[in-house]
Design goal:
Helices cover 24% and strands 28% of the residues. By secondary structure, the protein is α+β, with helices and mostly antiparallel strands. Strands 1-2-3-5-4 form a 5-stranded antiparallel β-sheet. Strand 1 and strand 2 form a beta hairpin. The chain binds zinc ion. Zinc ion (ZN) binds next to helix 1.
Length: 111
């Protein structure tokens, strides 16, 4: 989608800090991290809503598992999947949070 910031990151039209990518999924550092490891896990295809996801969910899940292993954070992480009006960018994505958290009470107990 033309105006989608995540699609622009996928096409490398705007700079980002990509930490992992494969054919279907891209993972990059968020611009506003709240954790030592704070990455966004996105399908490369523009999918606006969690409810529109089909088989893509498998590759997104597998990629998140690979990143968790790569950064050796298997002992503790949080995956947050936003949807609909609670997404800031209307392109489905998981927030993967691990390591030292900026506000542990908020992140662990309220989400
Ligand atoms: Zn998009």
């Amino acid at each position: 989608m033309e105006d989608c910031v995540f699609c622009k990151i996928v096409k490398k039209e705007i700079p980002s800090n990509i930490i992992f990518e494969n054919e279907d999924v891209i993972v990059f550092k968020t611009i506003a991290p709240v954790a030592e490891h704070h990455y966004l896990v996105c399908p490369k295809k523009h999918i606006a809503s969690f409810m529109e996801l089909d088989s893509e969910i498998l590759s997104i899940t597998k990629t998140a598992q690979e990143v968790i292993k790569k950064f050796e954070i298997v002992d503790g992480y949080k995956l947050i999947f936003n949807g609909g009006k609670y997404q800031e960018v209307m392109h489905v994505h998981w927030h993967l949070l691990a390591g030292k958290l900026e506000d542990e009470d908020d992140i662990l107990k309220k989400t």
